[in-house]
Amino acid sequence: MNIADSERIAGVLEQIGYEKAPNLDEADLAVVNMCSVRQSAVDRVCGISQKLIQSKKKRHKTILTGCMLRQDLHKFEDKFDFVFDIKDLKNWPRYLKGKELGKKDLCKISVEPRRQNDFLAHIPISNGCNNFCSYCVVPYVRGKETCINHQQIINEVKKSVEGGAKEIWLLGQNVNSYKSPENKKIDFPELLKMVNEIPGNFWIRFTSPHPKDLSDKLIKVMKSCKKITPYLNLPIQSGSNQILKKMNRPYTTNHYKKIVDKVRRAIPGIFLSTDIIVGFPQETKKQFEKTKKFFEKIGFDMAYILKYSPRPGTVSAKMKDDVEKKEKENRYRILTESLKKSSLKNNEKMIGKDLEVLVLKETKNLLEGKTRDYRNIVFEGPKKLIGNFVLVNITSATPWGLRGKIISTI
Ligand code: SAH
Ligand code: SF4
């Protein structure tokens, strides 16, 4: 979501004459697009603001935007020249260049992304969230869920595909609750079907689906639509039903397991990842043990393991953050070790196979990409393949990815 926002900021700034600077020192304008989901991200903004102040030249203006808590806003206000609301992006040109631009010029400005890579398109289908998980700041900083008209989404996908997009990400805090404001019959599975029908050679991915309302209809659509990739990030957050209740996540581990079984039956070999929080207030050793066992039982391909971070204003911030830092780190390490085992086991199953890969970048003379099911992969090849699909034979595996030999372009 932050990438999608940043690309839209770049798109709007380009329309009023800005272009990407080669480095910070040469920039006339620096924009920090912040995230408040965890304190560590907020702390990074402190560091960045210091750096910006130190590198400040006369021409160097700074903007702070993104998801921001009111108290952070006060903290950062005097460290940046402007603090702008991301939802107000259409009006930024007026604030930045109001005097130079006439009313006519301002009317022409549209909120369109300037993509970092034409082959990757991050497309929000909704903004905000109504779920109020007790630990989460998103509903407070992004506001209530608002869905984007399906026609607008379809047009953006079409335009991106015409512009060379090979991987389309449909984004929402809970994609499962999507309903088109134009036509309430168009829910998320219907939207996926429509995107799948758009002509072109591209992959569809989405995130995040809340387990509380992952429907059979969605599984059916994922199975039948060729462009939808066999990849699912299904955030569990905890493997203890008591903690899930405290988190205001209205499902049980049993329910979660049932969904996973259904999904795996429908789409064998699907890449399954999750988000999980360790050290939630009053999470006992026993409750963590349940999480660990459940985590092992599922055998995820990938997991975003996060140490609980109290967020001001949320319900859980009123509970005592009583799992010590060291113990949170310990629980984090235990789950990471467990993940390493399951992901290695799953990656090893790929050895010998020929897999479709989208080449994303070059690092240390190796091409890096993602398989159709979202596994990391590295292999040797010419840089010109970046942004293209290739076929790669898998030669070895690690917990975090695959290595292979290119066979051909697709
Ligand atoms: N809408 C998505 C998650 C968005 S936030 C969903 O419900 O799945 C991304 C992830 O950040 C969450 O899944 C959660 O694991 C993590 N997160 C959110 N608030 C957090 C907090 N206070 N401390 C630690 N991790 C948090
Ligand atoms: Fe946060 Fe829960 Fe909404 Fe996800 S579903 S954004 S975790 S409140």
Walk me through what this model shows.
Helix 8 runs parallel beside helix 9 and helix 12 (285-298) packs parallel to helix 13. The strands form five sheets. Strands 12-13-14-16-15 form a five-stranded mixed barrel. It has a three-stranded parallel β-sheet with strand order 1-2-3, with helices on both faces. The chain is α/β, with parallel strands linked by helices and 410 residues long. It has 13 helices and 16 strands. The protein folds into four domains: 2-108, Rossmann fold (3-Layer(aba) Sandwich), CATH 3.40.50; 115-229, Transcription Regulator spoIIAA; 238-348, Transcription Regulator spoIIAA (2-Layer Sandwich), CATH 3.30.750.200; 354-409, Beta Barrel (OB fold (Dihydrolipoamide Acetyltransferase, E2P)), CATH 2.40.50. Helix 8 (188-196) links the parallel strand 7 (167-171) and strand 8. Bound molecules: S-adenosyl-L-homocysteine (SAH) and iron/sulfur cluster. Iron/sulfur cluster binds at residues 129, 131-133, 136, 138-139, 173-174, 210.
Write the SSE topology:
Layout: H1 2-15, E1 29-34, H2 39-54, E2 61-66, H3 70-76, E3 82-83, H4 92-97, H5 103-108, E4 120-124, E5 126-127, H6 138-142, E6 146-147, H7 150-162, E7 167-171, H8 188-196, E8 203-207, H9 216-224, E9 231-233, H10 241-246, H11 253-266, E10 271-278, H12 285-298, E11 302-307, H13 325-348, E12 354-363, E13 366-371, E14 376-379, E15 389-398, E16 401-409
Parallel strand pairs: 1-2, 2-3, 4-7, 7-8, 9-10, 10-11, 14-16
Antiparallel strand pairs: 5-6, 12-13, 12-15, 13-14, 15-16
